Amino acid sequence: MDPIRPEPLADRDPRAGRQDRFTDRLRLEPIGPQHATDLYELYTDPAVAEWYGRWTPAEAAAEAARMGRHWQADGVHKWMAYHRSTGARIGRGGLSRAHVDGRNCLELGWALHGEFWGNGYATEIGRAGLDFAFGELGATEVVSFTETRNHRSRAVMERLDFRYAKDISIGGEAFALYQRSAERLTDGLPSS
Ligand SMILES: CC(C)(COP(=O)(O)OP(=O)(O)OC[C@H]1O[C@@H](n2cnc3c(N)ncnc32)[C@H](O)[C@@H]1OP(=O)(O)O)[C@@H](O)C(=O)NCCC(=O)NCCS
User: Where would I find the N-acetyltransferase domain in this sequence (predicted)?
Assistant: First the structure.
């Protein structure tokens, strides 16, 4: 068995991971077709578009639908994050199955509307992802990667206790690959 792709537990409700979950400040909704507009508005926020490129509404709708299919097939993918009190659209993030550096892994990522940078929301989403991976999914490792020059994303990884592994090339661009093992799960992860 791939150590970072655990077999589904026979007695685990396959819908369990697809329910909304809550952190201290955020409601996390598994992304599906109903999030097409919110995803489009996030990806076309100039602060995010600098990293994610140009998106049309149709492309964002296809992406939201794709993520929904992955939730169905894999029991895991990204969440849309909303503020629990105000309902504001904060961003998206969480886990997905990915093939990185020649192997299957659980990857953790985040993207926030620019107006919400600097509040710890990406770190909060990331903690929920680690909790999900190492708790319910029984994973032994989670990876994260970003363009080497994306210092804010690297800082989130470091806050979450990821360790830099190496640089990798994706599409001719240099990315920094980080790894986080279950053994390094420390105190203070909020329950989701
Ligand atoms: C990457 C990205 C999500 C990081 O956002 P961020 O706001 O810097 O990260 P966090 O939400 O964890 O917030 C951390 C900041 O909030 C501060 N903060 C405030 N309250 C905090 C809390 N409770 N917990 C942690 N940090 C907190 C931290 O001190 C830090 O401040 P600093 O930037 O002055 O050092 C954001 O830059 C982004 O969306 N970029 C575009 C998309 C992207 O590049 N995604 C990654 C692709 S791999």
Answer: 25-163
Statement: the pTM of the whole predicted model exceeds 0.85: yes
| Rounded Cα gap, residues 188 and 117, in angstroms | 21
- Which pLDDT score, from 0 to 100, does residue 169 have? 95
For residue 131, how far is its CA from the centre of ligand 1 (angstroms)? 19
The ranges assigned to domains in the chain are 20-139
Which strand ranges, in their side-by-side order, compose the sheet holding 103-112?
21-22, 26-30, 78-83, 89-100, 103-112, 141-147, 173-181, 163-170
Distance between CA atoms of residues 14 and 75, nearest Å: 7
pLDDT digits (tens, 9 = 90+) for 119-157: 999 999 999 999 999 999 999 999 999 999 999 999 999
Q: Which residue's CA is minimally distant from atom 42 of ligand 1?
A: 111
Contact residues of ligand 1, CB 6 A cut-off: 47-48, 51, 109-112, 117-123, 146, 150, 152-153, 156
Give the Å distance between the CA of 150 and the centre of ligand 1: 11
Mean pLDDT by 10 residues, the chain (192 residues): 40 65 98 98 98 97 98 96 98 97 96 98 98 96 98 98 97 96 62 42
Ligand 1: residue of 110, 130, 158 to mutate (most ligand atoms within 8 A of CB) is: 110
CB atoms within 10 A of CB 28: 26
